[in-house]
């Protein structure tokens, strides 16, 4: 399959280009498109065949459910049960990087929900994504547009790197702003549960929803199937720089001490071949995935990564780095 690459203006997307992409979605094809977090790989959420195409293009385990992207709250309410608390969260954070897991309407295909009886919904804050959903006239199921297990794509070039020849089209609107994926909150229980930290901080969610249960690493089994799989791993190993100096004993660093790549906020603690540094947790989030992809190409044998503090989007950056390093008990896809 030839993958068409269309350049789109992120602020004023051309209607004709959106219509071309929407025709592909309506015809059962796959279109990679930008959101404010990362690029997504979209298909018509009500076309089980098209949705299955997403799993085969990504090499994704088929029991890992997908987020359904909508362009307004009413469309979300047609996919599942939106109670008062859920609506308050939508009103506070949509459009934006918050995904809500709600009880699914019986009409949502099992290919989308993983047969869980719940569906994840989100309204992205990006004119190209919203325009594509509007022109398609259907909700758009979309995971991140990477090969399963790889760092998520924050540019069209990263999508091409992973999926060239496997999907119909990529809408290129430049690099994404937030850089880490949406925060996923399960609102089907008494307490909202954090399934994945992301672009909206838990602190801000608490301001609207009150207490939030669960934290990364202590998720109940089966709540978010994606947490079982390897995720975000670049082609070379990632070692976490921790305060107690455990990293110094890592044999991979001993062997490759002359070819260490570094990513973090502070200065690296040893001489390195190449370093990428950010001056805030927000910028770290914004550049994390492209940094991992760049460092794996640098000729270094290992990536040493500093964790930011847990405040704000720092929690999401820590989560992604720990998963990339294989440090989480359970893994995401
Ligand atoms: O920012 C984002 O969320 C991006 C953009 C494209 O919107 N999408 C994204 O999708 O990161 P994906 O598939 O890479 O991650 C979705 C996560 C997975 O961990 C999945 O297991 C979880 O959401 N998820 C989806 N539906 C779920 C459900 N019904 N119950 C529990 N977890 C669910
Ligand atoms: Mg993903």
Produce the secondary structure layout.
Layout: E1 4-7, H1 15-26, E2 31-33, E3 40-44, H2 48-58, E4 67-69, H3 73-79, H4 84-93, E5 98-103, H5 110-113, E6 118-122, H6 127-136, E7 140-141, H7 156-163, E8 169-172, E9 183-186, E10 193-196, H8 202-209, E11 238-241, H9 251-255, E12 260-264, E13 274-277, H10 281-296, E14 302-306, H11 314-324
Parallel strand pairs: 1-8, 2-8, 4-6, 5-9, 11-14, 12-13, 12-14
Antiparallel strand pairs: 2-3, 3-7, 4-7, 5-6, 9-10
Helix pairs in contact: 1-6
Low-confidence stretches: 217-222, 329-333
Q: What oligomerization state is this entry in?
A: single chain
How many H/I helices? 11
Strands of the widest sheet, in order across it, are 1-8-2-3-7-4-6-5-9-10
- What is the succession of H and E elements? EHEEHEHHEHEHEHEEEHEHEEHEH
Count of strand segments: 14
Give the biggest beta sheet: 10 strands, mixed
Helix content: 25-40%
* Secondary-structure class: alpha/beta
Task: Please state the average pLDDT score.
Answer: 93
Determine the N-to-C terminus distance. Answer: 25 Å
Rg value: 19 Å
Question: Are any ligands bound, and if so which?
Answer: threonylcarbamoyladenylate, magnesium ion
Q: What percent strand?
A: 15-25%
What is the overall silhouette?
Answer: globular
Question: What do you see in this structure?
Answer:
It is a single chain. The chain has 333 residues and is an alpha/beta fold. Helix content is 31%, strand content 17%. It has helices at residues 15-26, 48-58, 73-79, 84-93, 110-113, 127-136, 156-163, 202-209, 251-255, 281-296, 314-324; strands spanning 4-7, 31-33, 40-44, 67-69, 98-103, 118-122, 140-141, 169-172, 183-186, 193-196, 238-241, 260-264, 274-277, 302-306. The strands form 2 sheets. Strands 1-8-2-3-7-4-6-5-9-10 form a 10-stranded mixed beta sheet, with helices on both faces. Strands 11-14-12-13 form a 4-stranded parallel beta sheet, covered by helices on one side. Strand 2 (31-33) and strand 3 (40-44) form a beta hairpin. Helix 1 (15-26) crosses helix 6 (127-136). The radius of gyration is 19 Å and the shape is globular. It starts with a strand and ends in a 9-residue tail after the last helix. Residues 217-222 and 329-333 have low confidence and may be disordered. Bound molecules: threonylcarbamoyladenylate and magnesium ion. The site of threonylcarbamoyladenylate (TXA) has 30 residues, from strand 5, strand 6 and strand 10.
